[in-house]
Design brief:
Layout: H1 9-14, E1 18-22, E2 25-30, H2 34-43, E3 45-49, E4 56-59, H3 63-70, E5 83-89, E6 95-105, E7 108-112, H4 118-126, E8 135-138, E9 143-149, H5 153-160, H6 165-170, E10 176-181, E11 184-189, E12 198-204, H7 208-219, E13 224-226, H8 229-238, H9 260-269, H10 277-283, E14 290-297, E15 308-310, E16 316-325, E17 332-339, E18 348-353, E19 356-363
Parallel strand pairs: 3-13
Antiparallel strand pairs: 1-2, 3-9, 4-7, 4-8, 5-6, 6-7, 9-12, 10-11, 11-12, 14-17, 14-19, 15-16, 15-18, 16-17, 18-19
Helix pairs in contact: 2-8, 5-7
Length: about 375
């Protein structure tokens, strides 16, 4: 089966993008230079096509109660206009996906899953509908999502024209507002996956090209650049953000992947039962055997995903989940799952890179944090 194309595919072709199959979608990997795209987001702004992401709409009197049961976090306490990051787990506590949920109204929510997991997530959540009085609809094929990320993002949206300029300035992190940007009605969210300030704009497919082109024109004086998935990956890694299939998965518990506190809050404060609660309660009783750590190279050789971590005796004690030469920091960084006895901050561990060992320091995550 050939990969699907987003409504913005013609724009990427015209811009000369290199494409890759990601989650069953033909997506721009980069345009001219992924490092330049990365640096544009850190210093000015980048525009991304995220239309491969999913959108599930949950409506009805039991919408909040259903999401409380289906997801780990407590969605019934979420205020209208706010968003929450959470995870969908199976009965054994394995992570099916991480996702963001927006509360659109008292009885209406928008759930955004990862592209590769749309069908799997929709099936898993549909199985949990039970007797809840809700309507659960997959709107993924009808919705486009454009992100503008970087320190100039707010200025660019205002330059493009906003029906409510104050709302653009005042919408907080992990919140959303309805707005009209560049003459196009959008759901405007301020979340992001790059470590920078920025916005996500949800629009119907038939408005995606118009909105992209107007944002691109408004952003040109500010240094806005179109950005592909390669720069998105390096940006999120510097910011210490997990990627499903790398730092998250069915065989990685939330306590191993750095999401333990998210689970602990649900176990402590959430009255409602939820799928996976019993298994997660058991896992919470003891420290996880593995833990996600940050690695900083002492030399120039980068460690890539699946490279093994070894102790002084040469025994394998962990595995790199993601690794890059950091464009912002100027040295290679990586995230890795390592056995807990070898996870001490400030210690050094060796990574087997194509048969040769390279020393890496274990450092706190994230590697990069923007100045407020």
């Amino acid at each position: 089966m050939s990969p699907k194309k987003t409504a913005l595919y013609p724009v990427h072709e015209k811009l000369g993008a290199s494409f890759t199959d990601f989650g069953g979608w033909d997506m721009p990997l980069k345009y001219a230079n992924d490092v330049a795209e990365h640096n544009a987001v850190r210093t000015a702004a980048g525009i991304f096509d995220l239309s491969h992401m999913g959108e599930f709409r949950v409506t009805g009197p039991d919408a909040a109660a259903f999401l409380d049961y289906a997801l780990v976090s407590n969605m019934s306490i979420l205020k209208v206009g706010k968003a929450k990051y959470s995870i969908l787990v199976n009965a054994e506590g394995g992570v099916i996906d991480d996702l963001i949920t927006y509360r659109l109204g008292e009885n209406e929510f928008l759930v955004v899953p990862n592209a590769a997991n749309i069908d799997k997530d929709f099936a898993a959540m549909s199985e949990r509908l039970g007797d809840f009085d809700v309507t659960f609809v997959n709107e993924s094929n009808d919705t486009s999502l454009i992100a503008v990320q970087g320190p100039k993002a707010e200025e660019i949206l205002l330059a493009a024209g906003a029906s409510d300029e104050a709302a653009v300035r005042e919408v907080g992190y992990y919140a959303w507002v309805p707005n009209t940007i560049a003459g196009v009605e959008v759901l405007l969210a301020r979340t992001g996956y790059t470590g920078e300030d920025g916005f996500e704009l949800f629009v119907p497919n038939d408005k995606a090209i118009e909105l992209w082109e107007k944002l691109e024109a408004a952003g040109e004086p500010f240094g806005l650049q179109p950005c592909g998935l390669a720069s998105r990956d390096s940006l999120r890694l510097e910011a210490g953000m997990p990627l499903y299939g790398n730092e998250l998965g069915l065989d990685i518990t939330p306590f191993e992947s750095g999401l333990g506190r998210l689970v602990e809050i649900a176990l402590e404060k959430k009255a409602a039962n939820f799928v996976g609660r019993e298994a997660l309660s058991e896992l919470a009783k003891e420290a996880s055997p593995r833990i996600l750590v940050g690695l900083k190279a002492q030399a120039k050789r980068p460690a890539r995903a699946h490279a093994t971590l070894v102790n002084e005796a040469g025994e394998v004690v962990g595995e790199v989940t993601s690794g890059i030469p950091s464009p912002t920091l100027g040295y290679p960084v990586a995230m890795a799952l390592v056995q807990r006895p070898y996870s001490e901050l400030g210690s050094t561990i060796e990574v087997d890179i194509r048969g040769k060992r390279a020393p890496f320091d274990i450092v706190p995550l994230p590697f990069y944090k923007r100045e407020k």
